[in-house]
Structure formats: structure tokens, C-alpha cells
Amino acid sequence: MAASIARRFGTTLVCVSVDTSLVDLGTRPDGSVMMEPIDPDTADTTPRGLSDGDETTVRAAASTYGVDVSFVPRIGDASRALSQVAEDRDAVMLVVGTRTAGGRIAEFFTGSVAARLAHQQHRPVLVVPVDPVGFDASLPWDTL
């Protein structure tokens, strides 16, 4: 979906992955980011990005629609990170997906990233369902 929208706007698809297990503590004078794990029993401060399989899937979708794609890893609060990337790149809109059933428990405690984006920043937010219920026919974006 996001790749077809990028094609329509004649822009690059920017795929942002946010590692929420790390917290951003600010920037050092040299420009590097200070980060710490949320879990005090973890010493790993290497941000996790997309898996190789997910990155391959995104590249294939971008290729299908003839758009360039860039990958931007971030850490911390997902809605803040996405908003900041959108601001840095002067994005026209944010396209986000909904969570699968397993992610709904985490969403209960942390809140919906899509809802927080829609309420806390000035760009339009397009929310794409992962698995729509009650649709037997093709979805609008299947024909894009």
C-alpha cells in the first residue's frame, strides 16, 4: 500500500523501523545518540531493524511500483520516532499498519501508535489494516 502511495506522489518510500526496547537519552556533542535498554538486565544497545526477510519484502513491493526505498532505523517511542522522521523529511503523510492479534496486548499497555500519531502531529495518517474482517471482495488497494 505504502509503495503505491509513494508512486502516486512521485516520492521515495521511507520504511522506518523503531526498536522500542531501547530508550533515547539524547545526543552527544559529536552527534552520536546516547541509548540505554529499557530492561536493566540487558546490556545490548544495538538497535534492531527489520529482519532480512522483511527488508526483502519491502524492496520487492517498492520495485513492483517503481519507487526507491530507504530504510531508517530509530529507537524509543514509536510515535515520536515516526513523527520526527516525517518532520525531518517533510513527509506528505504517514502510512502505518495495524497490529496482529499478538500485538494487541502490548497495544493495550502502550496505546496505539496510529491513534497517537493521528492525534499528536499535523500530518495525515493512513492506517492500513493487516487482516481486515468482513471483506470477501478485493480491498481498494489491491487494484493500485
TrEMBL record:
SUPFAM superfamilies: Adenine nucleotide alpha hydrolases-like (SSF52402). Residues 29-54 are annotated as: Disordered. Pfam families: Usp. InterPro entries: UspA. Residues 1-129 form the UspA domain. It comes from the Bacteria. This is Nucleotide-binding universal stress UspA family protein. It comes from Microlunatus kandeliicorticis. The lineage of its organism: Bacteria, Bacillati, Actinomycetota, Actinomycetes, Propionibacteriales.
